């Protein structure tokens, strides 16, 4: 039974009462060692952390930066903050000082909590400092005296957390999520029955990416166990698989790029892990050639395409067809979870239901963010009047994502509105060129950018091929093949073969880095 509470910690800690002895978190410590923290132990850790935070004088509304990888202690810390109404701001230990400074300057935290010893030299401020671990939460430097409190009660509209997006679609923005929004998202997610009480959910995203909060919510709210995969091991396919095998993971969540090296070098080993029953991916398109290989390695697993943005944590869960039809061109992003709706809107702002026509997704949902932190202009650009009935005062999320509707009402994501570029007088959808590249024999991943070149802007394609590919033959063949299926202005003038695509801290394709690394022709 899922808790009906609108408060984050109450939903996620419900199993402390119902299944106290079941594992809540299973940590991989290396060398065949695991640490299992039961729900009862997790609940006790949350209480002890909350007592230390209360003793430090923190109260409803005080922001707390939480720098940690995902672990039992980090989950306890964020739930302790939640229980006291302290909005937490997750930051990864991997994040550069500059980014952390920006987060601190924007949010003005009263406390900076860290799992690790010491403190970042490059980050200063008049916040208190605390350290936490399995053994408790210790205040190392007291926070400055608090302001006068106007309220003590915690309500559904209070802020649960702030997540700074990686900014793949612009400058980083602080997405403010209320308790009511995140718990209503969780409730929509639980109706999909992705995991049950016996599952072990491997989580691979950094804590600062809200996909990790999706994983934690999915596992704990279902009475299952969270299995944090140590981030450094993700780079090594064998070690990553070892974590999955040793922890008995049954469900593996992450962005598509976590599978790239595994599928390239260790597909057989992956096929040998027979505990995995489900894979959920999110954040960007899963290149179809790679997805076919994942399906082949895990023929019995349920593969779920989760679509959405930080502004609503996510919004749809769609099963990948099994088997994957040979002529499948795109994955469906289905329909929004129960309680929410994706509306397609044309260029004139009118909603429509026609099939096949591309429009911008607007999301109507009780799981929407409150706004961008300290940024009313960006907030009103994203939270717009309901296009179906603008007079109602209701706001919906303008996602910036384009999609069309299929015969059964399901949606197909075609790209970001801002990836439609004007190129030599023609409108080019970069995702369309990428899709054509992925249809070419041997190509496993592709990204297309418009880059400045001496003779003017040029379409540049970066492709990754299977290990057997021979560069010269492959690239010549590609140009010829693209010229047959695309108008000439959409055929990239420059093609580069790479062994992998650079990724952001969150594991998505890093287009900015690709542009920088591409350098001059
Ligand atoms: P960032 O801007 O930091 O990347 P988000 O994680 O919120 O922040 O990114 C959300 C965007 O990622 C969506 O608006 C969409 O463009 C893309 N996206 C998310 N999930 C999927 C998916 N399953 N398939 C394709 N694109 C996706």
Based on DSSP secondary structure assignment, what is the total number of beta strands? Answer: 27
What value does the average pLDDT take? 93
Shape: globular
The largest sheet has its strands arranged as 11-10-12-13-14-15
Q: List each distinct ligand once.
A: adenosine-5'-diphosphate
What is the oligomer described by this structure?
Answer: single chain
Name the descriptors:
binds adenosine-5'-diphosphate, six-stranded antiparallel β-sheet, 27 strands, 15 helices, alpha/beta, six-stranded mixed β-sheet
Walk me through this protein's architecture:
The protein is α/β, with parallel strands linked by helices and 521 residues long. It is built from 15 helices and 27 strands. The strands form seven sheets. The protein has a six-stranded mixed beta sheet, covered by helices on one side. The longest helix is centred in the N-terminal third of the chain and has 17 residues, at 39-55. It binds adenosine-5'-diphosphate (ADP).
Structural topology:
Elements: H1 8-12, H2 15-18, E1 23-30, E2 33-38, H3 39-55, E3 64-67, H4 72-84, E4 88-91, H5 97-107, E5 111-114, E6 128-133, E7 136-141, E8 159-164, E9 174-178, H6 179-190, E10 200-203, H7 210-221, E11 225-228, H8 237-247, E12 251-254, H9 260-265, H10 267-271, E13 278-282, H11 288-297, E14 302-307, E15 316-319, E16 341-345, E17 351-352, E18 359-364, E19 371-372, H12 376-382, E20 383-385, E21 395-405, E22 411-416, E23 420-423, E24 426-429, H13 430-438, E25 443-451, E26 458-465, H14 471-485, E27 494-498, H15 511-518
Parallel strand pairs: 3-4, 3-5, 5-6, 10-11, 10-12, 12-13, 13-14, 26-27
Antiparallel strand pairs: 1-2, 6-7, 8-9, 9-19, 14-15, 16-17, 16-18, 18-21, 20-21, 21-22, 23-24, 25-26
Helix pairs in contact: 3-4
């Amino acid at each position: 039974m899922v808790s009906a509470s609108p408060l984050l910690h109450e939903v996620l800690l419900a199993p402390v009462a119902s299944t106290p002895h079941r594992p809540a978190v299973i940590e991989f410590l290396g060398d065949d060692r695991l640490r299992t923290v039961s729900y009862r132990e997790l609940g006790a850790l949350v209480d002890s952390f909350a007592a230390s935070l209360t003793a430090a004088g923190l109260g409803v509304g005080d922001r707390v930066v939480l720098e940690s990888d995902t672990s039992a202690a980090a989950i306890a810390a964020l739930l302790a903050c939640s229980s006291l109404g302290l909005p937490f701001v997750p930051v990864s230990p991997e994040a550069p000082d500059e980014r952390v400074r920006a987060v601190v300057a924007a949010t003005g935290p009263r406390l900076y909590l860290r799992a690790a010893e010491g403190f970042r030299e490059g980050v200063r401020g008049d916040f208190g400092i605390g350290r936490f671990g399995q053994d408790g939460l210790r205040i190392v430097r007291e926070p400055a005296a608090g302001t006068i409190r106007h309220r003590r009660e915690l309500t559904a509209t209070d802020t649960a957390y702030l997540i700074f997006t990686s900014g793949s679609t612009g400058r980083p923005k602080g997405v403010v999520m209320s308790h009511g929004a995140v718990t209503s998202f969780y409730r929509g997610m639980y109706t999909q029955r992705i995991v049950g009480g016996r599952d072990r959910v491997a989580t691979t995203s950094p804590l600062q990416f809200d996909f990790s909060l999706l994983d934690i919510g999915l596992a704990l709210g279902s009475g299952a166990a969270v299995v944090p995969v140590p981030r450094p091991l993700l780079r090594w396919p064998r070690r990553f698989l070892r974590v999955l095998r040793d922890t008995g993971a049954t469900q593996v969540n992450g962005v598509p790029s976590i599978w790239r090296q595994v599928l390239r070098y260790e597909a057989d080993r992956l096929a040998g892990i027979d505990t995995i029953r489900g894979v959920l991916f999110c954040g960007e398109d899963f290149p179809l050639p790679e997805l076919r290989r994942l399906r082949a390695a895990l023929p019995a697993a349920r593969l779920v395409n989760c679509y959405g943005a930080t502004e609503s944590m996510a919004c749809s869960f769609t099963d990948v067809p099994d088997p994957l039809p040979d002529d499948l061109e795109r994955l469906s992003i289905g329909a929004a979870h129960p309680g929410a709706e994706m509306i397609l809107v044309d260029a004139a702002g009118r909603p429509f239901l026609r099939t096949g026509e591309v429009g911008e997704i607007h999301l109507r949902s009780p799981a929407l963010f409150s706004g961008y932190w300290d940024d009313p202009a960006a907030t009103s650009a994203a939270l717009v009047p309901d296009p179906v009935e603008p007079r109602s005062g209701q706001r919906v999320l303008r996602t910036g994502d384009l999609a069309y509707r299929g015969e059964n009402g399901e949606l197909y994501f075609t790209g970001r509105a801002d990836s439609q570029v004007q190129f030599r007088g023609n409108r080019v959808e970069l995702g369309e060129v990428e899709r054509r590249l992925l249809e070419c024999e041997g190509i496993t991943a592709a990204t297309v950018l418009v880059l400045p070149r001496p003779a003017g802007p040029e379409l540049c394609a970066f492709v990754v091929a299977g290990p057997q590919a021979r560069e010269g033959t492959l690239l010549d063949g590609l140009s010829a093949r693209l010229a047959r299926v695309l108008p000439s202005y959409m055929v990239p003038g420059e093609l580069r073969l790479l062994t992998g695509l650079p990724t952001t801290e969150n594991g998505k394709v890093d287009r900015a880095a690709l542009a920088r690394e591409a350098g001059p022709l």
